[in-house]
Structure formats: structure tokens, C-alpha cells
Amino acid sequence: MLKNCAKMLKPIQIGDHLMPNNAFLAPLSGITDKSFRTIAARFGAGMVVSEMIASAALANGHKDMARRLGRPEKLPHIVQLAGCEPHWLAEGAKVAEDAGADIIDINMGCPSKRVTNGYAGSALMRAPDKAVEIIEAVVGATSQPVTLKMRLGWNDECLNAPQLAKAAEECGVQMVTIHGRTRQQFYKGKARWTPVREVVDAVDLPVVVNGDIVDLQAAEQALAESGANAVMIGRGAQGKPWLVGQIGDALAGREPKAAPEGDALLSLILEHYEMMIDEYGEHLGVRCARKHLGWYLDALIEDGAVIDGPLRKRLLTAGESAEVPKILTDIFNQLEARAA
């Protein structure tokens, strides 16, 4: 299947930007900050997208929303905006463009109650007329290309992704990404990739399939079932920021780069940690980095590593950034000693 995928997949062009491969990092709130996107891009991800940014808050100068505009290395700077009012989405798009965004992505897929209760995110799939107004406003507000991310629909009685994708294409959207679940599924059950084919058949745009793509086998299957042009990897990249690039290389018929191990992995984790402290500051950075440290350890455990419980607890409860390098080094020294 891999060889067939490599032959069929064509590079995706969005505006002036040609993506280097067809495996993309999904926008994940609280996860795909500048630090994480920079590392994923370095390991060969074909596209990285910012955390979801609330448009009204961004336009009104909210500091955390402005932080999320941080530009990663190498790849086009794609900023994802969310909201429920065309005016504020348009204003947010202008701020993002002024801050250097190369592409604006509209979020119509987030299932969070906090977001959908405000009629943003995937709730807009229940209000297609409002969704179209928002798309028109964003396309009209920026000179940069606009893309759209959504789900199959609100629920199984409202699988309207093909219709909304077609309307978005007519408004000028240049790519759509479909998560293979409805909003009512949240992240439960299994993503359905086959219904995404209806979106592929409805539009002439590049279509990206998303949901439960955690390895190359899943990526190949998702592409085969959906007929999509690319895959988007979200939770599968937690603790494995190199995974997206590996899948992109494989789909392009290239030998994937090996995942970092031993001292190389330790150096990467420490660098990632330092980047997060720089991005968030000491107090918030220590707290925000804990989940990433935990995911790195989880990935090691998946590969058969045995990690000392008390050391893990010390790492994930450290109150000062200066404590973390020593604890991490102790963990890796123990792993090396066990392997000897």
C-alpha cells in the first residue's frame, strides 16, 4: 500500500507555499505551541499549525493569544483562529497577518463544551449559514490563503461536511481538513475515515484526513479509505514530535529518519524543556512542560523501557526548572545501565 500511496500523493500547494510532504501536525490546544511546532518542523513535518486562538481575545490584545502567534522554524506560519462572530474572526485574521501568518486556518472542529457553548468550533456545523458568513469574512479580511478544519458533522443525523466544504471552496478556501468523528463523539470511539471520501468527491480542493492516525499503517489506511490528499496527526505525536516527519517521508517513498535514542533523545527533551521555559516563563513553563515530559516517558515505556516510579514522580512534580535536567539525566542513566 505504501508504494501506491507514494505514487498517488501529490504535493499540496496553498497560495505560494508548497508543502514538503503530505503528513501534517494538527493544531492541539495547550500542546502545539511554538516550541513543539519548531521541533516537529525540524524533524520533517510537512505542515504545522498553531494552537487554536480565540479571535476576539487576540484582536483585543490578550497576552496568551498573542503568545500563540509564535512562529516556528522553517515551515509556513499557519495560524488557526476560532470564534463565532464574523467581525471578530476578520479582526483576528488581520492581527495574525500583521504578526507574520502565512496561512489562516479556521476552526470549525473543536468539540470542547467551552467552545461550542459559545457557538464556535464544531457548533458552527449546526449553523452552516453563520459558518459561511465567517468564512467569507476571513477570506475578505486577509491577503493570505485561508484553510478550514472541521468534523464530519455535529452528529450522525447531521453529516454535512461535504456541503460545508463545497460552500467553503466557493468562498475561496484553499484546503479543508476533516476529523473523522462528529462533535457528539468528542474523541470517543474510533475515527471514521471512509465518510471523508464524500468530501473529497464534493470539492476540487486538497482534503486532509485527521483522527486516530498514530503510525504509518494508520496513515496509509486513512488515505486509502478516504481518498484524501494528506494526513494530519494530532495525539499520536505527543511524546513523539518526530513521528509526523517519519510518516511524511514514508508516504513520499523515502526512508524515514530514525527516532532519537539515548543521549540524542535526552538532549532533545532538555532542549524542548528549555524552549518552553523561554516561551512561557519560569512559573508557567514548569507547569506546562510537565505533560510533555510525561508523554516522552510514556513513549519510552511503550518501547519497553522500565522507568523508576519515584524518579518519574520527582520529574513531573519538580517546582523549579533547574531541577529537571538532573532528574532526566538520572532517568536516562538508569535506562542505559539496565540496557548494559
Automatic annotation (TrEMBL):
One of its GO terms (molecular function) is flavin adenine dinucleotide binding. SUPFAM superfamilies: FMN-linked oxidoreductases. Its cofactor is FMN. Residues 25-299 form the DUS-like FMN-binding domain. The keyword Cytoplasm does not apply. FMN binds at residues 80, 149, 179, 234-235. Its EC number is 1.3.1.-. The active site is at 110 (proton donor). Keywords: Flavoprotein, FMN, NADP, Nucleotide-binding, Oxidoreductase, RNA-binding, tRNA processing, tRNA-binding. NCBIfam families: nifR3_yhdG. Belongs to the dus family. Catalyzes the synthesis of 5,6-dihydrouridine (D), a modified base found in the D-loop of most tRNAs, via the reduction of the C5-C6 double bond in target uridines. This is tRNA-dihydrouridine synthase. It comes from Maritalea mobilis.
